[in-house]
Amino acid sequence: MEKKEGPLVGIRIIELGTLGPAPFAASVLADFGAEVVRIDRHDPADLGINVPAKFDVYNRNKRSLALNLKHPDAVDVALQMIERADILIEGFRPGVTERLGLGPEICGKRNPKLIYARM
Question: Would the pTM count as exceeding 0.70?
């Protein structure tokens, strides 16, 4: 991987994989040098939009990790990543991250400096 440049080098972002504005926002921040790790679903959702990951332009400049966030061990892995992040970006329906154990209160307790961006 080549060395990143830009005003956001050194900023670590966790994106919870969704559709719409969250992946777009994370890709723009990655374009400006932020380190973005996208947490994808372990089993892809059938949304009627089958775009292979290598062709999804919103995945540019990001790394990804597939986790089943309905499993407590996977949530613990995500929380460990969030502890070292500067920003978390999520675009789920209201209440989903809270049900998963990744809501703003829980994440804020693990990382008080975290910026929790909800789209």
Answer: yes
Dig out the tokens for 64 from the structure: 């990804």
pLDDT digits (tens, 9 = 90+) for 20-29: 899 999 999 9
Q: Which backbone phi and psi does 2 adopt, to 5 degrees?
A: -75, 160
Average pLDDT over the chain reads 89
The answer to whether the CB of 21 falls within 8 A of the CB of 58 is no
| Contact status, residue 13 vs residue 89, Cβ threshold 8 Å | yes
Q: Which tokens in the block code for residue 77? A: 């892995």
Residues 6+ apart with CB under 8 A from 88: 13, 14, 15, 16, 82, 107, 114, 115, 116, 117
Give the single-character DSSP code of 28: H
Identify which of 81, 91, 92, 68 has the alpha carbon closest to the alpha carbon of residue 114: 81
User: What mean pLDDT do residues 93-109 have?
Assistant: 96
